[in-house]
Each structure stands twice: as C-alpha cells, then as structure tokens.
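Weekly sync, protein design subgroup
Attendees: M.S., D.O., the rotation student, P.L. (late)

Item 1: inverse folding check
M.S. brought a backbone from last month's batch and wanted to see whether the design step gives back something sensible before we order anything. D.O. pointed out we never logged the input encoding, so this time it goes straight into the notes. Structure tokens as presented (176 positions):
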C-alpha cells in the first residue's frame, strides 16, 4: 500500500522542522544573553556592597585606633592615612599623616585605602542633653571621620563614607 503524496506536500515536514529549529535557537540565544546580563548585574552589586563594607571597615578601624581623635587647641585640623599605592584613592599629604588604622597588619587595608579625621568647628560645644551627663563638667569636640576605598580601576568597586563623631571631653578647669 504505497500511496503517492501530492506534489505540493513534498518537503513540508522539513520546512516545518527548520522553522521550529530556528525559533528554538533564537530562544536559546536570548536566554543565554539574559543570563549573562543578570550575572554581570549580580557581580556589580556584589562589588558595590564589598566596597561599601571595606569603606565602613576603614572608618571602624579609625575609630578603634587610640589617639585618632585628638582634642588639641584650635579646630579645623586633620589627620590622614593612605595605603601608599598610587591608586585612584585620595592621597594623604605628608604634613597630615599620622592616623593609624587598627588591624592594618591583616592586609585588608593594603591597597586603595584613604582614611581621614577632621576636627570640625566650633572648638568646643556644649554637651547634648541626651547624653545624660554633667553638662557643666564636660564639653564636646566634633569630628568627621572619612573612609574611602577606591579600586574601581581593578574592577573591585569604589566607596566613600563619612561619619560624624562627637567626643565628650572634660571641660578645662578655670583658675581664678
């Protein structure tokens, strides 16, 4: 029982299969491109978060270092530290160097790091009432602590965090 196929129907199965193959290939290419883009976005987000965490770690290391918030006469002075490499981070002038980072021997702060402590005016300010301390025996000194991580040129991200700090200090005794 060999039935002859009409001349018009010859090859229709091949044409249909080729069309489906092209559609499936295009869908596969779209899926690969979409997943590549999503992977790039996830990497960028991870890099951004790690840069922010490193900048915050720099600020925390400054605050943990003893002597990093000196209360000396005058205001508007600063201390700073940089990692010493010639990256894109802010460079610390030699006359302002002297800031120490707690834990800097661990290698975390080896590249792309800048830290700065600035004394903010006024030279002295009253103690905020929320601190619940003897306001007549203490005064405050205000500081801005900045931590910068700049490794964007290496694809590792960049972040800059500045935090305000109030340090309570004993009021200078007056002699009459």
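Designed sequence read out in the meeting:
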């Amino acid at each position: 029982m060999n039935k002859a196929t009409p001349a018009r129907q010859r090859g229709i199965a091949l044409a249909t299969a080729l069309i489906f193959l092209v559609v499936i290939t295009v869908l596969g290419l779209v899926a690969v491109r979409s997943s590549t883009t999503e992977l790039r976005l996830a990497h960028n987000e991870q890099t951004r978060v790690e840069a922010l965490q490193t900048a915050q770690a720099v600020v925390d290391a400054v605050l943990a270092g003893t002597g990093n918030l000196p209360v000396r006469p005058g205001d508007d002075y600063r201390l700073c530290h940089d990692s010493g490499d010639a990256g894109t981070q802010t460079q610390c002038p030699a006359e302002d160097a002297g800031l120490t980072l707690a834990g800097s021997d661990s290698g975390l702060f080896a590249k792309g790091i800048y830290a700065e402590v600035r004394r903010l005016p006024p030279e002295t300010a009253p103690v905020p009432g929320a601190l619940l301390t003897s306001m007549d025996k203490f005064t405050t000194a205000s500081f801005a602590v900045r931590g910068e991580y700049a490794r964007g040129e290496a694809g590792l991200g960049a972040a800059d965090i500045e935090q305000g700090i109030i340090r309570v200090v004993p009021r200078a005794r007056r002699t009459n």
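Discussion: DSSP finds one helix and four strands in the chain. Helices lie at 12-64.
Action: P.L. to compare against the previous round before Friday.
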